[in-house]
Amino acid sequence: MKTRIYNAKIITMVNGTDIIEGEIHIEDECISFVGTAEEAGKIKDGIVWDREIDACGNVVMPGFKDAHTHSAMTFLRSYADDLPLQEWLYNRVFPMEAKLTEEDVLWCSKLAIMEYLTSGITANFDMYMKNESNAKASADTGFRTVLCGSINDFGGTIEEIEEEYKHFNNYGSHLISYQLGFHAEYTTKRETLEGMAGLAKKYKASVYTHNSETKAEVEGCVERYGKTPTAFLDSIGMFNYGGGGFHCVYMTDEDLNICKEKNIWVVTNPASNVKLASGIAPVKKMLDMGIGLAIGTDGPASNNCLDMFREMFLVTALQKVSIPDAAAVDANDVLHMATVGGALSMGLTDCDTLEKGKCADLIMIDMHQPNMQPVNNISKNIVYSGSKQNVKMTMVAGKILYEDGKFNIGTDAEEVYAKANERITRMKQA
Known about the structure:
Elements: E1 2-13, E2 16-27, E3 30-36, H1 37-41, E4 51-54, E5 59-62, E6 64-69, H2 85-97, H3 102-118, E7 121-127, H4 131-141, E8 144-148, H5 158-168, E9 176-184, H6 190-203, E10 207-211, H7 215-225, H8 229-235, E11 243-247, H9 253-262, E12 264-268, H10 270-275, H11 283-289, E13 293-295, H12 308-322, H13 331-345, E14 362-365, H14 378-384, E15 391-396, E16 399-403, E17 406-407, H15 413-429
Helix pairs in contact: 3-4, 3-15, 8-9, 12-13, 13-14
């Protein structure tokens, strides 16, 4: 498949948010050219295109990456709202999760994927259970997913995590990969944590986990081990090969220095943290320290929607009001977190920017909408005034999965909705 997108404003993210007025060529799954129309004219003669797309002056840019989510939790959307975190988790979420089947995860994940596409998200970092179904949902639809281990005291063994690591990193679909991970320090006994650190050493692999999401979590770890979660996990060798922390709201200076030293990515989840009253992560401080930053939605149970535009706005707005400083966290830095940062935090080094040889994971932003006008600053428009209505097209691995409100995922949208509702109804009645 050879696709030409022309008459576009291209934000490659190679040089920040600089814009190229020109075109982008895609051959099969990869980008073969990015440049001006004049440069393209020198190479495109004789090429037979399967499709040529006139961008009509719209923006083409790397897709957003949801760097922390729980896709299949669409089944809990609006089910357990307006509750304190611990009550939400232990009294509502865990009991419903115990009823999940493989088919439930398959269809609820497909529902999430559809929502990702409407928000311009081309890959997710998915931490959940029943990963075989999760992987199948992504492979079936053509979506890119990095699975994250989620072992804890409620389920899973080190041996199972190791098998998943080997299996999903050699999966039949190139769209699927896997990173070592566990749910959190507070849900996982020390023996298991040390076993996970052992796997990291064995495979020289990064490890990812929920980290310092609440004050209670941090205080509990200090009581158990005399250290914060970040410091304790580092002390047992968990991050000797890097990794990532999801949320990272309550971080000490020591914690942040460890993140910097050990190349631990911080994935902030502002909408979820605000909705659950967990707090506001010190993103400005992390940014100033040069800590790698990415953005996640945390999934539809705690957030309710999978909307990267809302997340981007909240990342910067919450910093401005909490510091307070209206200049805190520039929108261009946020756009980097949502694209390049997200990709690199997940290990997707070939999906971060729009360059020759990189994966054709890209989106088209509709500039012919009132919220995108006037065009004073395109990148800041995207962060501060952009919304899902502006996502005109979402492409993953060279295949258009969403365009002008229609899905191309191998399954009819209404079937996905029906299947998801059937399963949710069964679980509520069980």
